[in-house]
Amino acid sequence: MATLPNPLPKLAADPTGRTLGLDLPQGQLIDTLLWHADVPATPGDWTALKGARTAGMLPLLIDVGGSQQGPEAWELMPGETSYPGDHDPEEVLAEYWEDTEDDDWPGLAPEPRPDTATPDPDALATEIADHLLTDGTWLKEPRVALVPARRSADIPAAIGWSGPVNHENDVARLCAVLRSWEDRFGVRVVALTFDQLILSVAAPPTIPAEAQAVAVEHYAFCPDTIEQSSTPSLHSYAEQLINQEIWSFWWD
Length: 252
Fold this sequence. Notes:
By secondary structure, this protein is an alpha+beta fold. It has helices spanning 9-13, 45-48, 89-100, 121-135, 155-159, 171-185, 208-221, 224-227, 234-241, and strands at residues 27-30, 34-37, 57-63, 142-148, 187-192, 196-201, 246-250.
């Protein structure tokens, strides 16, 4: 597997990021896995980091609030993480499904029908990031962060995120599914907390049949999303997915 050079060590010598074409606020490095700002994130911060892509890094919102604090206390496990491209997303989901259901795996949801009104996935991710920062119900103490990753779906694997450890020890297997969702539904990883993953979705399901098929994937991916919801029903959950541009997953 070819790996990209990690630009984060350069921030140790130049915390402003100017050698990478950036103008960063005061922040800190978590090993060589990610950088995050020390100051609270505000709308527009995601856009300000747009140039980081050319330096081999992707923007992310993280939450340093709550009992688990920030990523320095998240028990990141990059050494236990494989490569997302080594896993087949349908095989991963089918395995999860068979662990939770007696029925046969129904297969992946079809790719949404082409729609000229579908927004650009990266532009929508920017909008969703600003929404999370203004809404006030998603993140307690958000900070903007940078992660060296080839594609957005790989961000959890790039830092060895352990949020789903009670469901999956190797988060790269979940990232393989995120890659498939990235290709089919235009998802982007927008935010991470200790145990929550928040995605923007440029091409969500628009009709009940599509939503039901996607709900099956979500249930395999993160059973707690449905089993611990206020309406623990696959059908009720599917109804909530129609035209929903934010997907959120939480592992107990």
